[in-house]
Amino acid sequence: MNRGDADDPEGPGKRRGRGGVPLLRDLGEFGMIDLLRRRYGGAPLHGEISIGDDAAVVRVPRGRAVLSTDMLIEGTHFSLDYFLPEEVGWRALSANLSDLAAMGASPVCYLAALAAPGDTPAATVDGIFRGMARAAARSGMRLMGGDTCRGERLALCLTVVGALARGRPLTRAGGRPGDILYVTGAPGWSHLGLRLLRGGRPPKATGWRREAMRRHLRPEARWREGIAAGVSGAVSAMIDLSDGVLQDLGHLLERDSLGATLREDAFPVTRAFRKAAGALGIDPIDAFLAGGEDYELLMGVRPARRGGFLRAARAFPAKATPIGELTAEPGIRVLRADGSLLEGESLPRGFEHFP
Ligand code: ADP
Ligand code: MG
User: Fold this and answer.
1) What's the 38 CA to ligand 2 centre distance in angstroms?
2) What is the pTM of this model?
3) I need a labelling partner for 78 at 20 to 30 A (CA). Which of 4, 69, 132, 330 fits?
């Protein structure tokens, strides 16, 4: 979907910053836009207009458009001391795609607004856009426009466009007591990856280290699962996990004044996960319940429609696991494998993330 080309970000005859590395100011705003367009610009379909005009024109299926935007500021949301530019782009795009997924929408396109100091290496910007393009590629989402300007710090504002061709959006509201809570994949890995990276990035990782790093650096947004959940007609409410199972479950309960009971023995916590948590000195259940940035989906399923849901879930690339149920009684309770109960103050609180 994205056009690549073999030429160098440097380009022939450009002025160079220190050490021969071309800087944003060497390329200029239009030089940078042109490079991004050639390398990562979405190819327009018949009747569409991609990067290069005053605004993009995109075909959308009949139905409703679903829009979301997210801003990422260097130093506040990410740091190039810890992340490669490509990873910043990948994570930013995945987080946005995950918001579309959580509504049950099909991904359509994205816009990327960028502010950066003039002495930013052009290769850094190129890396960020390469990461976004790679994370977007499988979903078919195309870069159709954006904005580029000089700023005091690196800032990236992404806008994603999705479509709901049929059916209704899956919102955070709509759950009822008795609905079964399903979660995709295995939340907590991303936090384990973060903790591993904080101790210094391993040059070559294998086994659980590799898995934990991958899950933190290249999370996969569950857009296929989100669409299938919507189409199944069995899902009452849905949210994506950006802040951790407990925190985001809290948002799912809020609108309907519900509560939830979770069972530890149902959690998708594998031996590899326990091993990783143990090596990092973290309680695996705390990591599962309170770790953030997994971008898995958490959904309520009507018990009467469970069969239809399970049929739809067979097509999920990430497995869905039932971890508990919604209750009329407010608050979250976690039934531990040893029979004890965590609730209120005894529940793990969120972990602190990078500044
Ligand atoms: P305007 O003056 O109308 O803001 P620009 O010169 O900023 O136009 O942008 C020209 C074209 O390049 C537009 O189609 C815009 O969407 C696109 N564009 C600018 N910056 C980016 C970017 N960072 N990523 C993708 N497209 C961009
Ligand atoms: Mg502009």
Assistant:
1) 17
2) 0.92
3) 4
